[in-house]
Write a structure and sequence with these properties.
By secondary structure, the chain is mainly α. The chain has three helices and three strands.
Length: about 90
């Protein structure tokens, strides 16, 4: 008997892809900035993901060159516009 279900965002790649999807749906402010709380809140509260999953997803997206995280940690920028960003 399985007491807990698999977490959909425990894989860093899946978490990163979802974070990018969320970021694409948000209107960027000055210089393409997307405030981190605009993707953090829906990911953690609406999707019921964990902070560790969020952190792993952000780290994976940065390593892949999908986003840029400002050194202050307050905003991100999508680096490559378009739908081909996450094509496999």
């Amino acid at each position: 008997m399985k007491l807990i279900s698999d977490r959909p965002y425990c894989d860093p790649e899946a978490a990163a892809r979802k974070l990018i999807d969320l970021a694409k749906g948000i209107e960027a402010v000055q210089d393409g900035r997307i405030h981190i709380e605009k993707i953090n809140a829906p990911f953690l509260f609406a999707l019921k993901a964990s902070g560790a999953e969020f952190g792993a997803g952000i780290k994976y997206a940065i390593e892949k060159g999908w986003i840029e995280l400002h050194e202050s940690g307050t905003y991100v920028r999508l680096l490559s516009p378009g739908d081909d960003l996450m094509s496999r």
